Amino acid sequence: MLTCFIRYHIDPTKTEQFAEYARNWGQAIPRCGADLIGYFAPHEGSSTLAYGVYNIPNLAEYEAYRARLAADPLGQKNYEFAQRERFLLREDRTWLKCVSTPHGAKHTLE
Question: DSSP state, 86?
Fold first, then answer.
């Protein structure tokens, strides 16, 4: 399982637009095949950093998911909304894999 962390630099005067964007992805992402953990908007501290986090089995599945998301009507609408409203100043994706186990869980080496 891979986890995609998306770090957004957003316009601090447009946090409501980012929240709408996040709610839309909250519907479209799971429908298109990824396990959405959530979108996180600024609350305290930096007013320009926001995050989106989801899991996907592997990079091949990611490519299929991205194609479904690009064809999804709400996905298309959300991409257009972000372009029109210009609240996303920068977007960086980082792929990580979990290497720890929850406290108390048994770990088996493969």
Answer: -
